[in-house]
């Protein structure tokens, strides 16, 4: 598996805020950064990487193709624009951000364009995001599971997405959990709080460690250096079977990200 287990999210973060977050994170030891064309922060992410002094080849950069850019031509041209914004010759991973609304562009066309981009050296790996089982099947039919590095989906203790994760596992597709902290909501959870206390850890570390223990990559974001530092320490926290079972029981199918006109018919 190549998608790093732990990375930095940058959704909503712009201008000086994103520059500070990325620079702090790289200084603290983060080596993977998740951005997207629609975040309108690729240039700042690129600037922060440059200013950090960390070598480009030591950083795993993910970007995502926006829904306006799903046709073959636009995948290639918009990805070249992303590379220019990021001040780099390649990204490590390029994802389809959301399935094309109303299937205006087929999954096959976009996946094949991404595969072409990979062959051109614009991206080392390709993948998908917010894909349901049906959409993952279409992506596999188009390019084969061996070319799909990950499906990045909303996944937290409150939205465990088991139908999708079970199917992905059975078909060899790695899962990246976004909003593992449910945008901060699970940090107030009593069960997670109790487990955190037991391990002298923070609730954020418990949630992130839980997801990684299930084999998922995580990309929490933070604007605060202390939170960035503490979150990274989740990689050192080992939960026991009892903790894992207690968090499994927190499932409540509570989805936060469900944009009208973009979200597919979810599996659960
Ligand atoms: N593929 C997609 O469609 C998609 C959709 C959504 C998100 N994503 C990706 O996933 C990343 C993560 O999602 P997210 O940023 O929306 O949500 P998140 O990582 O679940 O939560 C971030 C929020 O939690 C707070 N937080 C972080 N660490 C904390 C800590 N240790 N203690 C207390 N609060 C803490 C942050 O506030 P502070 O800044 O105050 O620390 C921020 O408000 C995004 O940045 C983006 O890269 C992808």
Automatic annotation (TrEMBL):
Substrate binds at residue 97. One of its GO terms (biological process) is methylglyoxal catabolic process. It comes from the Bacteria. Transmembrane segments: none annotated. Keywords: NADP, Oxidoreductase. The active site is at residue 39. Coiled coil: none annotated. The record marks 64 as: Lowers pKa of active site Tyr. Its EC number is 1.1.1.274. It catalyses: hydroxyacetone + NADP(+) = methylglyoxal + NADPH + H(+). Residues 7-250 form the NADP-dependent oxidoreductase domain. InterPro entries: AKR, Aldo/ket_reductase_CS, NAD(P)_OxRdtase_dom_sf, NADP_OxRdtase_dom. It is an enzyme of class 1 (oxidoreductase). One of its GO terms (molecular function) is methylglyoxal reductase (NADPH) (acetol producing) activity. Belongs to the aldo/keto reductase family. This is 2,5-didehydrogluconate reductase B. It comes from Xenorhabdus innexi.
